[in-house]
Amino acid sequence: MPEYPIFNCKNSDDVIKAVREHRVELVQFWFVDVLGTLKSFQVLPGELEAAFEEGMGFDGSSLEGFCRIEESDMIAIPDPATFQLVTWRQTAAPIARMFCDILEPSGQPFAGDSRHCLKRNLQAAASKGYSFYVGPELEFFLFESATSPKPLDAGGYFDAPPLDLAGDIRRETISCLRSMGIGVEYGHHEVAPSQHELALRYADALKMADTAITYRVVVKEIARQNGCYATFMPKPLFGENGSGMHVHQSLFKNGRNLFYDADGDHHLSREARAYIAGLLRHCKEFTAITNQWVNSYKRLVPGFEAPTNIAWARRNRSTLVRVPMYKPGKEAATRVELRSPDPACNPYLAFACMLAAGLKGIEENYALPAPVEEDIYVMSATQRRDRGIESLPGTLEAALEAMEGSALIREALGEHIFTKFVENKHVEWDQYRSQVTNYELERYLPRL
């Protein structure tokens, strides 16, 4: 892949100058709907100045979770800090992209804009002096096509060639991401056949949500160029591990990691312990956001490394929250890892809900239960009950029920997104439960 410049634009003048100097042919304006699906339209360079000043109008009535037809006018305002070349398209005339904030015609932020939702929650944290950093691990599968989940290899965790046959695809993907200014720490084969992961270097939550959207696009585009299909579907293969999005997170204040305390238990501060307690107490309420598809709950079952039990630990990967071991001299790396989300979620909404839950724990000084270092997967139901270990919702319907009763998540998302999301997911659940599956035909038809 050729060398591409990495931009650090501060304002509209920087973008217009970069477009001119690099002879950019088109600029894609990116944003997502309430489900986190990427939407885009292309803008010619000559329209950029007006786009920065006035925004670009579009019809929002056809986008999931946006608005009704009688209130359809929306305005997209590009964020100059997100300007980068689209490096998977190696053409003579470069194409760039910018993420957008969505406004009402009045100039007010649109309540259905996922990016604004995250910004609003980050501003609430900033009012207390906090900066929120996240580092997600988005797993994915590579298949022969989009119509059949046939793996490309039979490799397992950290396998190398010849068992891992996608090393070159991961290398191209990493190169493309880096050329767009996205830091990648490492890539490797995951546990399931043809399953992979690239670990992204942590960043502030807004930048990381933009990065997660870009990551999903780049992974799929590089796979397509290599004649295969990449999917972030949480559980495409029966009997194999599903794809998760473990989210490492931390709060900083005055340039210092607020989660570290040299004298605290496990080197965790009071704030860190209360933050973890917030995640544990409210996780049922935000599971519909972090695991938003019917298929998400085929991954959240015992036996496949996906956490189903509401507990925390340091080394134990069967718990919902894990605290990576402290390393001397690495105080800034102190963090907590939420292991339940999957990579098909809307990252803006997911990060907003995690932050809201953690901050609620800090504000109310929630007490953190003792860590569970034993393997919860081998515990009986009675043993889990005696230890006070509850489980995540087992279906999308159950997750929606927990979400609908949550004042915290309603406030974090705002009334518009909360209502539109719940409405959409009830439709999905009703459509799913009315289906007759091959499992049912094979199991019941010969017997009844």
Throw out a few tags for this protein.
448 residues, alpha+beta, 11-stranded mixed beta sheet, 6-stranded mixed beta sheet, 13 helices
Explain what you see.
- The longest helix is centred in the middle third of the chain and has 21 residues, at 205-225.
- The strands form two sheets. Strands 7, 8, 9, 10, 11, 12, 13, 14, 15, 16 and 17 form an eleven-stranded mixed sheet that branches. Strands 1, 2, 3, 4, 5 and 6 form a six-stranded mixed sheet that branches.
- The radius of gyration is 22 Å and the shape is globular.
- The protein is built from 13 helices and 17 strands.
- Helix 11 (407-413) crosses helix 12.
- The termini are far apart.
- By secondary structure, it is an alpha+beta fold.
- A hairpin with a 2-residue loop joins strand 12 (245-253) and strand 13.
Mean pLDDT: 93
Low-confidence stretches: none
Number of strands: 17
Report the sheet with the most strands, covering strand number, pairing sense and barrel closure. Answer: 11 strands, mixed
| Cα-to-Cα separation, first versus last residue | 60 Å
How would you name the oligomeric state of the polypeptide chains in this document?
Answer: single chain
Quote the beta fraction.
15-25%
- Based on CA atoms alone, the radius of gyration comes out at 22 Å
Task: Give the overall shape.
Answer: globular
Briefly note the structural class of the backbone: alpha+beta
Number of distinct helices: 13
Question: How much helical structure, as a percent, in the residues?
Answer: 25-40%
Order of helices and strands: HEEHEEEEHEHEEEHEEEHHEEEHHEHHHH
